[in-house]
TrEMBL record:
Coiled-coil boundaries: none
Record-listed E.C. numbers: 2.7.4.8
Any single GO CC term annotated in Swiss-Prot or TrEMBL for this entry: cytosol
Name assigned to this protein: Guanylate kinase
Organism: Novosphingobium mathurense
Taxonomic lineage of the native organism: Bacteria, Pseudomonadati, Pseudomonadota, Alphaproteobacteria, Sphingomonadales
């Protein structure tokens, strides 16, 4: 479970898309949200867009691995897809906030890798939010307001990467993923091979 969090606008979505395009072994954990779709967002791909009533039902029926309220909207990770995939060794990418990260870490610590992206500066963060052109000025102001408190949660992550140059940032994220895949505990497929090597 490869989690990427950042203050809104720092570049998680962009880096996630690059990773999904270039790494055939990881797929996205698609969250449910009550926020309305942005232009270009596809239901079932970017998010499952659901009503508040449907979200509340899913919470009551314990269908989420974790869920949280962000910017007044509800977001949650549906259990079913991820649990089944993990069992088969599938890697999942999560674009979730610090609250969700904490919940996943508490439940599934050994399977979790936590990466936090930082913007190179507060001014650049504002430029990116404005440049993205998806939010009104009020929403951007609220996201900027929240950015500082989100950044304060950076100590709940294993890795921190500054997203200045996009390609350099992407390379670093890929290196983290590659190294984490090489952890001995995750290479259970090598057990037979190592035994064979040790056999006199
Ligand atoms: N806890 C949690 N957070 C989520 C989930 N899905 C998205 N988020 C977070 O909700 C925040 C807002 O996401 P979004 O509305 O797509 O705007 P963004 O900040 O521009 O990506 C981001 O910090 C996401 O990482 C989820 O399933 N659970
Ligand atoms: N390294 C970068 N340099 C310049 N612009 C960037 C960079 N990374 C992302 N962006 C742009 O900043 C905006 C916000 O990025 P996005 O990936 O949507 O952020 P998030 O998902 O964290 O809210 C987008 O318009 C994106 O194209």
């Amino acid at each position: 479970m490869f989690i990427m969090s950042s203050p809104s606008g720092a570049g998680k979505t962009t880096i996630s898309r690059m990773l999904l395009e270039r790494d055939a072994h990881i797929c996205m954990s698609v969250s449910c949200t009550t926020r309305p779709p942005r232009p270009g967002e596809v239901d079932g791909k970017d998010y499952h867009f659901v009503s508040q009533a449907e979200f509340d039902r899913m919470v009551a029926d314990e269908e989420f691995l974790e869920w949280a309220t962000v910017f007044g909207n509800s977001y949650g990770t549906p259990k079913a897809q991820v649990k089944a995939g993990l069992k088969e060794g599938q890697d999942y990418l999560f674009d979730i906030d610090w609250q969700g990260t904490q919940q996943l870490y508490q439940k599934l610590e050994r399977d979790v890798v936590r990466v936090f992206l930082l913007p190179p500066s507060i001014d650049e963060l504002r430029r990116r939010l404005t440049g993205r052109g998806t939010d009104s000025e009020d929403v951007i102001a609220a996201r900027m307001e929240r950015a500082r408190s989100e950044i304060s949660h950076w100590d709940g992550y294993d890795y921190v990467v500054v997203n200045d140059d996009i390609d350099a940032c992407f390379d670093k994220v890929r290196e983290i993923l590659a190294a984490e895949r090489m952890r001995r505990a995750r290479q259970t497929g090598l057990i037979g091979f190592v035994r064979e090597l040790m056999t006199p």
